[in-house]
Every structure is written in structure tokens, then in C-alpha cells.
Amino acid sequence: MKRILVFGVAVALLGLSSSSLAGQARQPTFALVPKAINNPFFNAARDGCMDAAKRLGVVCEYTGPERTEIAPQIQVLEGLVSRKVDGMSISPVDAKSVVPVIKRAISSGIPVITFDSDAAPESGRLAFVGTDNEAAGRELGKLFLRFAPRGAVYGIITGGLGAQNLNARIKGFKSVVRGANYREVKGSPFPSNDDINRAVQLVEQMITANPDLTAIVMVGGWPLFAPEAYKNAVKKKEAEIKSGKFVIVSFDTLEPELKLLKEGYVHGLVGQRPYQMGVRSMELLYDIVVKKQKPKQTFYNTGVDVVTRQNVDKFLK
Questions:
Q1: Contact 91, 33 (CB under 8 A)
Q2: Rounded mean pLDDT, 171-180
Q3: Contact (Cβ atoms closer than 8 angstroms) between residue 244 and residue 147
Q4: Separate counts of helices (H) and strands (E) for the chain
Q5: What count of other Cβ atoms lies within 10 Å of the Cβ of residue 32?
Q6: pLDDT digits over 71-99, tens only?
Q7: Please, which pLDDT band fits residue 149 given cuts at 50, 70 and 90?
Q8: CB under 8 Å to 163, separation ≥6 — which residues?
């Protein structure tokens, strides 16, 4: 009887141990690495990443540098490679600088995709999730032509000068505007390094340093993420902006930007879909790691929205 009881207890414990282990199976961890973690645009991508991860039963680790700088981002990526996360989706600060660390990740068995901004082709990344940036730049150019007076003098605000996505937008914009009797001010494009305060300062400096300036083109919405500071920066031109004599067009359609558009401080916006970038990043990495499926394509276009005062209420809702 004693032996039977001992055996029974052992079986019961074994059963508990098995089910406990099964219940504690490790969830795959996929890292979403933006250019900077304090950017509202990337916060929207983070939200999409978290929501998709919860639905798929994986972990979204949102991590990156506090500022848009090459070396800190590479340091974060090297740490993720050392920890052997299960997959990474990266928005590179610089398309070429991340190539060596992406190659190390892949050689370590960690699949890598990119979102928002792509890496250089030789990186070996499996897919890019984001905007067709050159085409989106052309949409920005069309908005500019729609609102800017003939012969307008403009300056461009960008993020990092090595960002592939931003350079593609500028290329697309100029392909539309080129030859249309518009002039770009000396020193443009002006890099903000994705820093909101720096971008606001650039707006004010451009207006002060270029008395003939009649338009500002932003290939990212950085100055508009700080609405009150932005309003102060354009105060000298407020009347001209609201009358259409001084034109401002920008990328992104986050809520602060939409409100500025409705109030007349901006004339048109080309909006990306960062939330969907976060969602699609998790779905792709899940397919690659869990389902063992290779991406069916190398570019997943999340699309854009073109917003003016005519349809801004729809997007605010």
C-alpha cells in the first residue's frame, strides 16, 4: 500500500510538473527599435507593436536610443544581438552604419526586418515595412504646388542627413517641384536630427535668416509635435500663413498636427501609418520565427493619407 501511495504521488507530481512547464513555455521576444524612443511618431508604432504582440502571444520589446544618433542606436542593437532576442524590426538612423550589426544578428540566427526607414541593400534584412517614401515625397510636392505661390522661396527641414527614408522623400518632392520656378534657400535641407526642440528652432531661424522665404517644407512633423512652441516660432508670419501667402506643408498626421492644420497654421499634410508599421512588424516576425515562413515580398507598403482643411475633420474623428 505504501509503495502504491508513493507511486501515485510521484505520478501526480510529474503531471503537475509537465503542465506547469507547458504553461511556462517562453514567449518569443521581438524588438522594435526606432530612431528615438521619445518621438510621438514612433510611440504610435510602439502601440501597434504592443497590440499585435498581445494578439499573437509574443513579447514586443520597444527599445532604442533617447536621441536620434547613430552610435547609441548601434549600442542598443548590439545589446539585443548579445541577448539573442528572437527577431528585430529596426528604423535605422543611418542606412549604412547599421549594416555590420544587422549582418551579425542574421549570422547569429536572429531575423531582421526594417520599418519606417530602410537599411542599405547589402545589410541582408529580410523585408521593409513602411511608406513608399519617394512616392510620398511626390505627394508632398503636389501639395506644395497646390498651395505655394508661383516663384515661392522655400527651405526644407529634415531629420538626419543619412536617413534613407527622409532622403527619398526629398528626392520625390524635388522631382515634382523641379523646373517650376521655385527656389530653395542656401543650406537647405536643414537637419533637426529628429529633435523636436531643434526643429522648432530651425523654423524660427529660417524665417529670420531668409527675409524672402515664402514656404517651409517638412519631410517629418517634428516642429508640429510641440504646437505652442511652433506657433511662437512662426508668429512673425502668422497672418501670411493664414492668408496663404506663406505656405507650410509637412509629413505626418498625428493629432497635434491635425489640430494645427484645422487652425490654419499648416496647409497640407502627408500622413504615414506608424501604428500599422508596428502591427505588421510583429506579424512578419511571428510568421518568420513561429510559422517558419519566409516573407512573400521584400516591401510591405503601409500607404499614406493626404490631408487638407477640406478633410481634416474626418481624421480628427
A1: yes
A2: 91
A3: yes
A4: 12, 13
A5: 29
A6: 999 999 999 999 999 999 999 999 999 99
A7: confident
A8: 35, 92, 93, 94, 95, 117
Sign of CA dihedral 68, 74, 77, 82: negative
- Residue 169 carries which side chain, given as an amino acid letter? R
pLDDT digits (tens, 9 = 90+) for 202-227: 999 999 999 999 999 999 999 999 99
* 3-state SS, residue 33: strand
pLDDT score, position 181: 86
Q: Scan for cell 501670411, then name that residue.
A: 240
Residue 89 backbone class (left: φ over 0; alpha: ψ -120 to 50; beta: rest):
beta
* Residue of 259, 267, 300, 269 lying closest to 283 (CA atoms): 300
Measured distance CA(124)–CA(10) in Å, rounded: 51
Q: So what's the pLDDT on residue 14? A: 38
* Residue 250: closest CA among 116, 140, 130: 140
C-alpha to C-alpha distance for 149 and 235, rounded to whole angstroms: 20
First to last CA, the chain: 72
Q: State the angle between helix axes of 70-83 and 99-107 in degrees (0 to 180), rounded to the nearest 10.
A: 0
Q: In which element (H, E) is residue 182 found?
A: none
Question: Region 277-289: what's the mean pLDDT?
Answer: 98
Burial code of 119-154, b = ≥16 C-beta within 10 A, e = fewer?
bbeebebbbbbbbbbbebbbbbbbbbeebbeeebeb
- Using CA atoms in the order 89, 97, 92, 139, what is the torsion angle rounded to 10 degrees? -130
Least Cα distance to 40 among 213, 227, 204 occurs for 227
Average pLDDT for 271-277: 96
